[in-house]
Amino acid sequence: MDDDLPTDFQVIVVGTGMVESIVAAACSRIGKNVLHLDSSDHYGGLWASYNFDGLQKFIKEVNSDPKRQQQVYNLSEKWYIEKETPQEEKKEEGQDKTEDSKAEPPKKVWSQANFTSEYRKFNIDMTPKLLFSRGPLVELLISSNIARYAEFRCVTRVLTWLNDRLMPVPCSRADVFATEAVSIVEKRMLMKMLTSIVGYNEEEMNNEFKDWNDKTFKEYLTHKGLTPNLIHYVLYAIAGGTDKMPCLEGVKECKKFLMSLGRYGNTPFLWPMYGSGELPQCFCRLCAVFGGVYCLNRPIDKVETKTVDEGKTMVTIESKSKTLNCDHLVIGINECPKELLSPEPAESCDISKAIFITNGTILPSEKEPLSLLRFPPLTEEDNAVTVLEVGPATGSCPKGLFVVYFITNKVKDAESDLMPYAEKIFDMSGGDQTVTSDKPKCLWSLFYNAADGGGAGSGAASGADGVFVCAGPDSGLDFDRAVSQAEEIFKQICPGEEFLPRAPDPEEIVFEDDVTHGPEFRREDDDADGDAPKE
Amino acid sequence: MHGRVKVRTTEEEKARKEKEKQEKLKVFKHAMQKIWDKRKKEELDLELMELTGKVLTSNPDIYTLWNIRREILNIFRKDMESEGQQLVDLYDAELRLTEYCLKINPKSYCAWHQREWVLTTRSNPDWKTELALCNKYLKFDERNFHTWDYRRFVISQCKPSLKEEFDYTTEKLLDNFSNYSAWHYRSKILVDLHPDLEAGRPIEDEHHKHELKMVESAAFTDPDDTSAWFYQRWLLGAVKTTVDLVVCTISPLKTTVAFNEPVSKDYVQMTTNLLINDVSVNGEWLPCEGKKYNNVWIFKHNEIIGDNFDIKVEYNRENVDKLTILCIQKNSLYIGRNNISFQRKYSEPVIKELKKQLDSCRQLLTMEPDNKWTLLTTTFLLHCINAKHYHNEVIDILKTLQIKDKMHAGYYGDLITKWSIELQLEDDYRNEELELKVKFAEKISSLPHLHYYSFCENVNLFNQNLTSRVLSTLSVLQHCKKLSLENNNLTTLKGFPSLNLEELNLRGNKDLDMKEVEIFKQQNNYNVIF
């Protein structure tokens, strides 16, 4: 097989993370000759979704060879349940299944063995992210027509932690109308604040905020006479900020949130079915449709750049003792040889993450919820914590379970940063699963830290000409940074070209006779009899 | 390169679409021609069903084709004595067709109508399916009033639990409260589901309060959304109202009786009885305003009215004690006034809720002193809680609104007029004058409650803002001798009713046409001053 692989490409992309995949698709889309490689056997790199088995392999890999995977560290996995379900209960379970429809079976008791046997029903994200309904990625998916490769679910609610309990945040007009948590005068205050933030044009914006440059958003909200409850909703839940958040940033974040309301659901967010790890693959698919060549399980050993005539750079890489040449090399930070990385250590703002698998939702509701919880910092030193809870309807886990992601900027390490928050909403005691309590039981947890060396601006930089290093995942909620970085890299590789123009639908494609078609196209071609329109 | 896709250019795509369109047009024209031909030949058969069906699937709004289909179905219906399987199938197919068409245009009047026709024509209609269809379409578009209309039709046939329907409106309003149809439907169900039969009020206290709270929440969430305000206005008006006799006037020339609301001839005949010197008088009731329901009725009788008579009017309503009104002589008139009150009567708990809402409004006004809807609602709440007590404040706010919201200055002016007249009326009814004159500073722009003054001999509307629009309402002034419309804004005398005046003053109406007044003078035998 290796022999079949051509050796000369215009663009070689190494790593199938989000940024790399978007660049690959964009280059391929405008006719560049693209080779896309990944050292592992799956797509996504640091952005991947794993089933439970795949996740176990990943954990093992990182723990056994920390040097190989420097982007992820402090990995700590923990079980809160038995290895096996006791023999007797297994029998009962069998009986239950036959008369499943009759009576509500008692709450399932999960064991590690259950997880192993149902491993394929899990899709666990290493980089869980939401999409703002009017965010850059949604717009890109639509404008490029790549959205047809993906499916989404609407986030059903935004929650916050207020007065020591979980509270839904009234963020849309319908929510504000329905909520009983705020008085009607507060409703008016809140709506007024929200609509004025959305409505400000640039001039009004400059006018309203001219004296607020060096003040915090909290000061502004207080100045506007909002009650403490409302300040909490707007500052922590809608703007996703902390007490220190600068005023203008808060306004910007609020506006972004509010502009995304009402497009798809009752909240501004979408969650990709089967996990965020699906999204890089959508771009890879487009790349392949336009002729990109894919090769997984293909680590690279060496990268060299040399100047050929007229100052043009050629990049050569060695992979499995084969030499591949290209004009441009795009490489994910996790695949990148150290010598190519900028020598000065990037601004360190690593991320603390945690994944929990629980036996119920954090706040019961009528239909299966899909929640975003924004935790305000519990202590002065802490950062705000973003929590995403996804259920079986998203294809993330088997029925009866929920996967909950925690993300925050690192202070100490993942476990000490996040455990206090997890304890607020989960029962971490590992006790009897059948006992109903007000908190869901945590069955399994994983804490880890992820490096983020790709602060804004440094994305397209690299040590060598013709080589572009793509940053890993950031701690942001959406894919904003990945999209803008990909576009930046693309513009340097293909100056003046359009970034991901709309891909045609099948009926817009002309099939010519001298082209070799795949089998499924052939039939259509015969039917259509050239391109004469059908009746 | 292998696998590279070639994409049609926009020009090619345009040409392809244009060609497709032309083809479609040709097919359409051909089919329509064939349909007309067949109908002319009276070939009302299955083939015509098929043809019309095909055209409708691409254009559901050709109502003629739906008419033809009903024609055909009616023929089949008559031909087949009992509703056999064939006819059942045809009805089913018709329902499927309408559903298909509604998918193309959910606001197609004729498709919804066809569906209603099929269901009322066939036997054993399946209302459950229809209700499910309504739910489906309201999920697509919760504001599609066609669907709400259709839902009311379905409900009227299958009569499901009102509670469920009520909860359904709640659900839809929680999704989006800018929904006139849902609020309207809610109001209809509310009075059926929770009437307060004991107290004779339209809505039970607890539910009245709940609705007021709900609509307040909507209004405070988005004060610029009018749908909630309309529902609130309806709720405020949902008080016990009874028809009452207001005033009776007996003169040697004419006998009139005025009611607070328009009533029918049957009603007057049944309830009202004139007694002169304790003898019941026979006669005929004639409408004063020439309508079926009138505020003022004229009693035509042959009795001669002299001085110092004992004149009474008995007013006898169902379930209420008989009321006898003594008519007291003043000049040549005998006038019997009833006790009147314009204060809306709410129950204690509702009043309490209204006061709470008033507080919220006032609080809101300190934050947003200029919000029109908050200001207006404040006036309504004040008026509903205690019109007399808050009168000056109400008028002040309405005057502010006239300045702030110029587009609706006329509306605010009419409110000022109405509420000021109401207050004056209660006073005037305690005096025994035979004169109407405006006793407050604000100029009136309309003549509300004029029938309350039907007894007046002297009506002085000097220096007001009246226009010719009000002329026809003057017909209730059956006993008026001297009428002054001096210094108003009359532009024509069209619609001026025939009255037995002695003097009419039209001076100072700048835009009144001299010629028209001359002709008017000739037609009427009273003194017209101009």
UniProtKB/TrEMBL annotation, chain A:
Keywords: Cytoplasm, GTPase activation
Source taxon at top rank: Eukaryota
Keyword Cytoplasm listed: yes
Keyword match Cytoplasm: yes
Protein location: Cytoplasm, Cytosol
Cited Pfam families: GDI, RAE1_2_domI_C
Bias (Basic and acidic residues) ranges: 514-535
Membrane-spanning ranges: none
Family assignment from sequence similarity: Belongs to the Rab GDI family.
Function in brief: Substrate-binding subunit (component A) of the Rab geranylgeranyltransferase (GGTase) complex. Binds unprenylated Rab proteins and presents the substrate peptide to the catalytic component B. The component A is thought to be regenerated by transferring its prenylated Rab back to the donor membrane.
Name under which the protein is recorded: Rab proteins geranylgeranyltransferase component A
Gene: LOC113523579
Automatic annotation (TrEMBL), chain B:
Start and end residues of each stretch annotated as Disordered: 1-20
Comp. bias regions, Basic and acidic residues: 8-20
UniProt key word Repeat: yes
GO BP terms: prenylation
Gene Ontology CC terms: Rab-protein geranylgeranyltransferase complex
InterPro entries assigned: LRR_dom_sf, Prenyl_trans_a
SUPFAM superfamilies associated with the record: L domain-like (SSF52058), Protein prenylyltransferase (SSF48439)
Swiss-Prot/TrEMBL catalytic activity: geranylgeranyl diphosphate + L-cysteinyl-[protein] = S-geranylgeranyl-L-cysteinyl-[protein] + diphosphate
Keyword check for Metal-binding: no
GO molecular function, one term: Rab geranylgeranyltransferase activity
Keywords: Prenyltransferase, Repeat, Transferase
Pfam families per record: PPTA
EC assignment: 2.5.1.60
Family membership: Belongs to the protein prenyltransferase subunit alpha family.
The protein's role, per its UniProt record: Catalyzes the transfer of a geranyl-geranyl moiety from geranyl-geranyl pyrophosphate to cysteines occuring in specific C-terminal amino acid sequences.
Name by which UniProt lists this protein: Geranylgeranyl transferase type-2 subunit alpha
Originating species: Galleria mellonella
Gene (name only): LOC113516931
